[in-house]
């Protein structure tokens, strides 16, 4: 598939930026899981968050998630302040948070795995995000690049014809790679769930842009 191109005509040359894209079904789920706990002391909050996240990690491993696909990504402890009339801000405790980044390679079982992990961690556990991505998009990107090149060739040929010329040799080619990033699954961010929620993978678009310059033959 292609999109609009951009063109620049110079002395004896034509430069065109062609854009194309291709789609493929994602095969990898990226999940961010967090445990956030409040307690009267730093030690209590820290321990509770650690226990919650350890339970999540244990549930993931029990479901067959490889240790290499579970990675710690965050750890914080902060004061929990509350406003009270006539007293101003008062320290009411501490909040500790710890998070994991998880890769799930079986989309068919991803929903059940996430549900088990959240249930194991209890009410302190949250899903910060869930993203559906391509583990290897090289083949899809090649298709997008082909589409982008054909888009550029068509546009360049049209402009050459309008200038009463034909396309000569290619003088330069530049490959530009847009970075659309993973596609988030709406509705699960900052949500706690104990029942499996359907995951609809759909198709992930991969875009490519190529800029080429042709000499014009008159």
Feature tags:
SIMPL/DUF541; 26kDa_periplasmic_antigen; about 220 residues; about 30% helix; Translation Initiation Factor IF3; alpha+beta; Alpha-Beta Plaits; 9 strands
Describe what you observe in this structure.
By secondary structure, this protein is an alpha+beta fold. The protein has two domains: 2-25 and 137-181 and 204-217, 2-Layer Sandwich (Translation Initiation Factor IF3); 28-133, Protein of unknown function (DUF541), domain 2 (Alpha-Beta Plaits). The protein has three helices and nine strands. The chain has helices spanning 42-62, 107-121, 138-162; strands spanning 2-10, 13-24, 28-39, 70-84, 88-104, 125-133, 166-176, 183-184, 204-217. It is elongated. 28% of the residues are buried. InterPro entries: 26kDa_periplasmic_antigen, SIMPL/DUF541.
Helices, strands, pairings?
Layout: E1 2-10, E2 13-24, E3 28-39, H1 42-62, E4 70-84, E5 88-104, H2 107-121, E6 125-133, H3 138-162, E7 166-176, E8 183-184, E9 204-217
Antiparallel strand pairs: 1-2, 2-9, 3-5, 3-6, 4-5, 6-8, 7-9
Helix pairs in contact: 1-2
